[in-house]
Write a structure and sequence with these properties.
By secondary structure, the chain is α/β, with parallel strands linked by helices. The protein is built from 19 helices and eleven strands.
Amino acid sequence: MQPYFHSVTLDTDSCKGCTICIKRCPTEAIRVRGGKARILELRCIDCGECIRTCPNHAKRAIADEFSLLSKYAYTIALPAPSFYGQFSGQDISISKILQSLLTLGFNAVYEVAEAAEHVSLATRRYIENSSIRPLISSSCPAIVRLIQVRFPDLIDHLIPIQAPVDIAARLAKQSAMRKHGLRREDIGAFFLTPCPAKVTAIKQPIGLQDSWVDGAIPIADVYARVLRTLPYLENTPALQQASAAGIHWGRAAGEEDAIKARRHVAVDGIHSVINVLEEIEIGKFHDIDFIECQACRGGCVGGPLTVQNAFLARVNMENLTRELPHEIPPEIVEAVDKRWATGFYKLERDIEPRSILKLDDDFSKAIEKMELLEKTVESLPGLDCGSCGSPSCQALAEDIVQGLASEGDCVFVLRDGVQSLAEELLELARRVPGSISHQEEAEEADKEQPLKESEDESGKGDPGDGSKLGAQ
């Protein structure tokens, strides 16, 4: 099996073992052992929730740096729609923001928001021709991985359409190849990303042979560079092509608005998404056509690699798009119609579930471990307090069966064990003969007893002497 790439990493030196992260991780991918957190590779979906919640900043994202641009003869910046929401001010415009990227060393820019318009129309086509309900957006890679790990039965509900960033990189590179006569490998396409999940999706794509994107640079790393150049730039209208419909993909419900499904739901925040997916599993939402699911609260503007507060970023985005058309341009509609029949927008491979609990390669041993797992769960208190370093009693039982923990890691089991041991020792002390020193004291007492009795008897032998002395 190919090893998983993860953009979320742990800085053990900064970790204090506080266990806050284990309770917030949506896939129970974190344990605390020996006073330090540990990320389980099979369970992690790189959603960045631990980055957002760790008070010690011990969780970090691995991404690409600007130095990577030097490897390519021609470079293209792919700004995420949420990138625009980081900037505010009367003199700020999307054209200026795009122009500033050219001053940073990119040869061209292609708006991911424009590709989002393509994906909106392609998704609309797919919904019209599918009988599965509800259909779930696959644009958020953290949600796709969440379904692979926790809700494998819902994989068929995922819409097999490529994410806007993949379509943007492909369209941008093909355009540069035609215009400049370049080879694909000479062109570097770099996504300005709001979250680590998209870094992982680029390095290890799901449903694609390989990604057309060559790197992912965090929005937080680009923001200050762009901010310094903006006051010196003038508007370059030709650079800005996307409509408000595509740009609004950067905030919650933006995708839903652009697709215009008849019956639709938008849910943001990975724990809220989990609640919805659990209800879909039991048959609810069957009368909904389309569900937009975003792992980050507020949508991509709330990603852990952004700069601005998500609520402020949404306001900024609305201000920047106020004068833009809110409908997808007719030329995009025509282009999607032509490409749809060729399968241009569809995923190249099926999305497969990810197994996160493999007890043993040997089937008979796996059954034995499963029985042991059930017994272990029953022996634990079921409080899911996290004090043991596992996020739940079920998770601790799994760790115990796999040899990664012991029942003594549970403070309640340990307390009961100590109390029981103390009672046994007390009972044992009552039953076992005294120590040697006690025996010696008893022997001395036995020696002194006859002497005392002898003295008492001698005193009683001549009572008359005492009376005579008294009389005298």
